[in-house]
Request: fold
Amino acid sequence: MTSSSSDSSEEEDKKKAEENGSDSDSESGSSESSSEKKKKKKAKKEKKKKKKDKKDKKSKKNKKAEKKGKKKKEKKKKKKKGDDLTEAMRGSVSNQFGKYGIIKAEDFFSKKPEFMLWAQEVRKVNTDILGQMQLKDLFKEYVEDYNTATMPSKKYYNIQVFEQQMSNKRRKKKAETVIDTALQSSLASFDDEKARRDEVLALRAKKQENQISSEVQRLRMNKEKAEDMKHQAMLKTQQSMLSKAGQVEAAGKISERLNPNKVDYAERRAKKLDGPVGFQPEG
Reply:
């Protein structure tokens, strides 16, 4: 009996040990699966991050290349613009050459008035103190400016033509001023005429308004007169009917209404016949 009880206890212990073993196995399995999940998640995260970093790097590289290309393009554009400007300036200078003619050192006396004016106004030189050789040297500079058409005013090329042009301009300006004055005077007279015309129109409008008012008044009076005549005709008809019916008193009242002036006269006459107190009219 003792042996059987010990056997049964051993079996129970064995079962418990097996159960504990299975639990530990399941726990270890679950812990292993959890760590694997974490590893996979981490690896996925790192992969995503690497992909993003790669994309950002590529984007930065593209932006840098684009910026560099833009700068290069702008630089090229500026250079081209500068070249075009230089070319234009060169062309301008070459086009200006000989614009007002070409002179030489031998033209000193023919161009002396313009040269002397240029020397005094542009170069600020007192020509009275210069010798003949100094004047000729200065004239060479004048010749260069003349031929390249780089002088500041047209009067230094041909003073007679310049003065003629200025005279024409002054004459034209004066004529324009006269025209403007005449135009202003004309406008002023036009304004006066307009004011008078407006005044006449206002008087006409007022006159027409008065005429319309008088006509309306006349029509109103005619209407009232017609209504009064109609009323009198009606009263006369009533008087005639009452007289025929023998109602003399009622007919008399209507007669008084029809002839108020006659009644007033009769009353005044009656008062006169009565006379003052103590006076008896003759029988």
Observations:
- The radius of gyration is 66 Å.
